[in-house]
Amino acid sequence: MPTLVVIGYPDETSAAAAAEEVLGLAGELVLEAEAIAVISRNRNGGFQVDTNHHAVPGGTAWGLYWALLFGVLFFAPVFGTAVGVRLGALGGRTARSGIDPAMQARIRDLPQPGTSALFLVVDRGTRDAVVERLQRFGGTVLTAPLTLATALPGEWSTVPTSAS
Asked: What is the rounded average pLDDT of the residues 139-150?
């Protein structure tokens, strides 16, 4: 089962450095480069989102996945009800990813002004190896299991969703 791994860092640059490390491990640990994203938040509270999606089969879907996930987690609460309803309609599948509301709140609280967070979607068997290899960067690790239909953009149309 795929797992969302989120690692929060106390500064704006550690998540990007950890993402570079993960990219180096992509072949070794069976990771997709497109399944990696970084959110950094400047001291004024502004967000910067960096992903590795490319214009290749599956790349566009990962870009959409990250946009929807981050929209639901971070931007809908900021923009209020009108935008939140629109993002909620677009991101309904993401919202039903199996991440319970308490975990969503914990993830939402990680990137405070002046900090960053690394987001990865990995296979459960890969999760521990990735976290172990990234220990040297420190950080707060959160993990949440995801349903296949929402975690793997290339599989959205072929894997049935579980009842939620």
From this structure: 77
